[in-house]
Amino acid sequence: MNENKILIVDGMALLFRAFFAQSYSARRLEDGTPTNAIYGFMQYLFDAVNEFRPTHVVCCWDMGSKTFRTELFSDYKANRPDAPEDLIPQFSLVKDIVAALNIPNIGLEGYEADDCIGTVSTKLSELGHVYILTGDQDMLQLVAERIHVVIMKKGRNNYAVYDLDFLKTDKGIHPFQVVEMKGLTGDTSDNYPGVKGIGEKTALKLLAEFESIDGILSNLEALPKSVKAKIEADLEMLHLSRTLARINIEVPVACSLEECAWSVPLESASEVFDKYRLTNLLRMIG
C-alpha cells in the first residue's frame, strides 16, 4: 500500500517561475503565440518526475482571482500586478499539454490552487506518500507523516524537501504553527498585515512559549507590555489573518488514484508536443 508516490504539482507556481526564468526566450509558434513559460513548466515538471519517480501525478490550478478569501478581505492579494501579457495565452495552453500527458488538471472557482492541493493531498496521503511541488512556503502547513512539501529553489533540480523533522529543524515550528505565524506576522506577498509591529522573531518566540495564538491570548497578562498592547490593538486582524492563511482541506474536488496514474500515452502526447514545438522535452521522460 505504501508503494504509491503521488506528485501534486502547484501549476501556477511552476508556470510563473518558468515564465520569469525563461522571459529572455523568444519561443513562439508561427502565429506568434508565446510558449516560453510552457517550455520551462515542462522542464520543471519532468525534472521532478525524474527526481522523485512518482507513480501518480496531479496538477492543481487557480481559477480566477475571486475566492472566499477576497470576500473576507477585499485587499487580499490586491498588491499583485496583472499577469504579463505574454503569459496570459499560456494559461490555457499549458493545461492542454498537461492533459495530453494524462495528468488530471484540478481547480475550482472560489478556491485557490492551495486549497485544492490541501484537499487532494490529504485524501491521497491515505493511499501513499504525497510530494507537493511548489515554491510557496504557505504549503508547509500541509506537511504530515505522509505529506512532504518540495520547495523549488533557485535553478533547476534544486529542492528543499520538508517532512516533519526538517520543518522543525529548518523553521523551528510544527505544521499547524505555519498558520499561527502568518496570523501574527501577516504575509506581504498575499497583502494581509497580521499584527502591526510583530515580526518573525517575536512570533517564533511567542509560539515556542505558548504554542498557538489561542495560547498567547490566554496568557496576555504574561506578555511584555509592548507586545500585549500590539496584539490587543490588532485582535480582529490577528484572527482574520489566521483565517486567510489557513488552507481549506475540504474543498469539493476529488481525484482517484486510477485517474492520476503516471503513464504517458507517448503517441498522442507526441502530437501535442510537436504542435507546440516541445518535442525534445519528451525525451526527458522517454
Describe, in plain words, how this protein is organized in 3D.
With 286 residues, the protein is of the alpha/beta class. The protein is 45% helix and 10% strand. It contains 13 helices and 6 strands. The chain has helices at 11-21, 36-52, 68-72, 88-100, 113-124, 164-171, 175-185, 200-210, 213-218, 225-233, 235-245, 266-275, 279-282, and strands spanning 5-10, 56-60, 105-106, 129-134, 147-152, 159-162. A 6-stranded mixed sheet has the order 3-2-1-4-5-6, sandwiched between helices. Helix 1 crosses helix 2 (36-52), helix 7 packs across helix 8 (200-210) and helix 7 packs across helix 11 (235-245). The longest helix is centred in the N-terminal third of the chain and has 17 residues, at 36-52. The mean pLDDT is 94. Residues 4-263 form the 5'-3' exonuclease domain. 5'-3' exonuclease acting preferentially on double-stranded DNA. This is 5'-3' exonuclease.
